[in-house]
């Protein structure tokens, strides 16, 4: 357990900042990296400056279960500037940046519970630590914190007025809870904001996932056959970047509309059964489980590389791969070699967890700027609407979505047109035609 003592008045013993991080001595390095990311987060900087003056989040206690990265650190600083008391834990065992976690505790005084590579028990103990802070607002990435509150720590639900959810996987789980009338407080689906999924999912996942693959393997994408499971915004982003790097791209889908779109976008739409023996690199981004199964692993060519960039590693049937394997070894950091009967090898990256965070740094700060601006403004919205919303999943209010886009354009020095009074009138009438 790492703690940081804050500076107190003379003669008064300051209270330590609680937390559980790998090494508090990493705080200096983490601070430098957090500040580097901040340079590319102008929207969040602008929001933080306003929050520091207005304190719209005063009296809020926020429990956040997010990837502990430099970008997340800047979101936590923004919430803190707004007057909130903030507690943070990791939303994936392999996504934590240990120097960032140390800086949050040691420099910024934000209780943080996260260690890269933590085991299952430690992962959930960190979630419990955040829940025990008795939050009034939850902030989740994958719905693990909310699920634990709803199943094992229900006594803390009475204090929660609302929450936010960052990712599509978590939104799917929350909507299932709402449909079953199990959801006990309103939640805003950050993922459904246009300034989130159109940019974070497409440009962020597309770039950072391939970055993780390249750091882990140093493979050449040009001339390779890359199989992408799922053609949502994440899959679209991956496909265009893999193609741009010279790959032949195959896309597997269960949705006929998306499969048709992938084919017309210039990729090979097919089943995983057809793709399995042809692929050199497989990346899953579906949000579902067992997308690559035993029969697919068995059909792969020698040396096939398999990874996941969806939220949970269940997209890959890793137990099936374990059953097929006659031996297993670590080939290099974040690369496990599974040798099957007959000598064929399948390489699994990052234990099947988010490859962009397991082996790389996650999304670039410039794109996370918009996602986390939505988080900050949505929390402000929820603070104003406390007690006035139903227990369901809401989309990000349109005015917040547009404000984030406006701030981003301003930060890029881009001006756009506005409607003239004549145009406004024309769009509001039906009588004027040809």
Structure in words:
The chain is an alpha/beta fold. The chain has helices at residues 27-39, 42-54, 70-81, 98-106, 120-131, 144-151, 168-179, 194-217, 233-244, 256-264, 272-275, 294-299, 318-324, 355-358, 365-384, 398-411, 421-427; strands at 4-5, 16-17, 19-20, 61-66, 85-90, 112-113, 137-140, 162-165, 187-189, 225-229, 248-252, 268-270, 281-284, 304-308, 325-332, 335-340, 345-349, 393-395. The chain has 2 domains: 4-196 and 363-411, Rossmann fold (3-Layer(aba) Sandwich); 202-358, 3-Layer(aba) Sandwich (Rossmann fold), CATH 3.40.50.720. The chain contains 17 helices and 18 strands. An 8-stranded parallel sheet has the order 3-6-5-4-7-8-9-18, sandwiched between helices. Helix 1 (27-39) crosses helix 3 (70-81) and helix 2 packs parallel to helix 3. The longest helix has 24 residues, at 194-217. The N and C termini lie far apart (73 Å). Mean pLDDT is 95; it is low at 4-12.
Provide the descriptors you would attach to this structure in a database record.
18 strands, alpha/beta, 2 domains, 434 residues, Rossmann fold, 8-stranded mixed β-sheet
Tell me briefly what this model is.
This protein has helices spanning 27-39, 42-54, 70-81, 98-106, 120-131, 144-151, 168-179, 194-217, 233-244, 256-264, 272-275, 294-299, 318-324, 355-358, 365-384, 398-411, 421-427, and strands at residues 4-5, 16-17, 19-20, 61-66, 85-90, 112-113, 137-140, 162-165, 187-189, 225-229, 248-252, 268-270, 281-284, 304-308, 325-332, 335-340, 345-349, 393-395. It is α/β, with parallel strands linked by helices.
Number of helices: 17
* Beta fraction: 15-25%
Helix content: 40-55%
Question: How would you name the CATH homologous superfamily of the largest domain?
Answer: Adenosylhomocysteinase-like
- The gross shape turns out to be globular
Q: How widely separated are the two ends?
A: 73 Å
- What does the largest sheet look like? 8 strands, parallel
